[in-house]
Amino acid sequence: MPTQPRIPVALATLAVLVLGGCRGRAPGSSSTASHTVDSLISLVEAAVGVKFAKRPRFELRTRAQAQQYLRAKLEQAFPDDRVRGVTAAYALLDLIPDTLDLKGLLLPLYAEQVVGYYDADSTALFAVEGAKGDQLRLVLAHELVHALQHERLPLERMLKDLTNADRLAASQAVLEGHATVAMMGVVMPDPSVLADGNFWRLYRDQVKASQTSMPVFSRAPLILQEGLIFPYLAGAEFIRWWNQQGKGPLPTRDALPQSTEQVLHPDRYVRGDLPVPIRFVEGSDRVVHEDTMGELEIQIWSTQMRGGGEVLYDLPLGWGGDRFRVYQTDQGPALVLYTAWDDTTSARRFVDGPAARFAARERGGYRTAVARLDLDGRAVARVVRAPREWPRWSDLPAARIGAAAIP
Prior knowledge:
The protein has two domains: 30-264, no CATH class; 278-406, no CATH class. The strands form three sheets. It has a five-stranded antiparallel β-sheet with strand order 5-6-7-9-8, with helices on one face. Strands 1-3-2 form a three-stranded mixed β-sheet. The two termini are 43 Å apart. The longest helix is centred in the middle third of the chain and has 23 residues, at 165-187. Helix 8 (197-212) packs antiparallel against helix 10. The protein is globular. By secondary structure, the protein is an alpha+beta fold. The chain has helices at residues 30-48, 63-77, 80-92, 102-113, 133-150, 155-158, 165-187, 197-212, 215-219, 222-244, 260-264, 266-270, 294-305, 344-359, and strands spanning 57-61, 116-119, 124-128, 278-280, 287-291, 319-327, 334-341, 366-375, 378-387, 399-401, 404-406. Helices cover 46% and strands 16% of the residues.
């Protein structure tokens, strides 16, 4: 898979899909693995419906080299100031514990799962020594699709745009879902089963069972677990829908979904239901982190607020858009979140449901406030969690939709 992680949705996209129950002997040498790549190229081209312009470069790596690579990518994507901002945001939202060592969790989480990867920066395909033969074949087929994608999409630029995590999550879901469906077409004896909904329900159950059997994954917070498997599950469902519509081998960059809402609910994609742009009015002084949650994370957050359990993605929330900031204060970090909704019913359901349950949670030294606002017919909710003594309580940071200001 492309190796630039999105932030902060799941914070866990370096790991390669691993299915349980793979059997076979480990490849004996780099030449053996390279031969596997050669044998897969025409099959991948047939599954995708597009030919390679040139054979992708391939190299075998030791597990130590793979871990070194992952560590370097982590440092590149998660400099210390960004880690502090992301950790503060998701701790304030009660999505991760205050004590979580994010970097300390991410590297073993990635290393636990990685078998192979495609690096968009070097345009090279890598496999990790010791992978079993059938497992390696599965992963290489998946990564070859990413190499094919990269010949048509600027992955290295797309995956480094960290201004909107929700949009980035949507793009990555399409890329991973496309690679997953094509990979299945390569390795399945009868590709016609890919049209069977029962097959994909079994696939989802298998992926979840495989992931939860991994020690590091099983102890990770729900936001990390769901974000890790979202691209492969929801992304594959979106691509199945895309293929059923006869839309072509792969969306162009301009045709990519703009939100996780569009990935989860393709009818929103068809309707051109784009996210409502929300921007904070004032400058970024003392802002330590700013981003967009999107429907995916709002759904996960709502699940956390009702006490856990399965995240229910089937029905759209009526999410219209959101934007949040974390401010550094003398008393500790402060969070301000604005969400726009499709209608007043959706906004009221959010405010009276997960937002109200969030406001009822105690946090020492903090105050939480939820308000439902209306601006030019647009239903908006504002959630604030900040130290009780924060001077801005009397003058909360304002945001705007388009040219209109939210007080």
